[in-house]
């Protein structure tokens, strides 16, 4: 919800740093911090997806340093799960995380974080398409 609300308001000319978005981001981070403190919830598919989305939010509306923190955390959680092959949705979560990583890393001008963790290396062979992940905000490869 944070990404959708921020994107809508940003398209309407509202700063991503406005009080309403800042408060919503605080709620998201608080909920996620609570989840990662619980050993049973910390490594769930839902938390992995949420961390990936928050990392993407930071690439688009926040800062690169925070993006890197979230991606390093995501990598640690995946390793705690025993690797990408143990993620849910019959490989769907792995594909989504790899797609996020490839595109957000491209935007951040960073090497992908999850490349070495992929159980299907060909998934990382695709070219980044920042326009697809940003709804057209970024139209070309930034490099």
Automatic annotation (TrEMBL):
Family annotation (InterPro entries): Fun_TF
Protein name: Uncharacterized protein
Taxonomy, superkingdom: Eukaryota
């Amino acid at each position: 919800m944070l990404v959708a609300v921020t994107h809508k308001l940003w398209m309407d000319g509202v700063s991503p740093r406005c009080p309403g978005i800042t408060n919503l981001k605080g709620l998201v981070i608080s909920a996620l911090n609570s989840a990662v403190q619980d050993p049973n919830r910390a490594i769930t598919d839902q938390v992995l997806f949420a961390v990936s989305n928050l990392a993407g939010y930071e690439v688009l509306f926040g800062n690169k340093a925070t993006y890197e923190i979230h991606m390093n955390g995501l990598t640690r959680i995946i390793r705690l799960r025993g690797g990408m092959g143990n993620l849910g949705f019959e490989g769907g979560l792995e594909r989504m995380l790899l797609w996020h990583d490839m595109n957000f890393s491209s935007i951040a001008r960073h090497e992908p974080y999850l490349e070495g963790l992929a159980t299907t290396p060909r998934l990382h062979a695709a070219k980044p398409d920042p326009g697809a992940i940003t709804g057209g905000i970024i139209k070309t490869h930034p490099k």
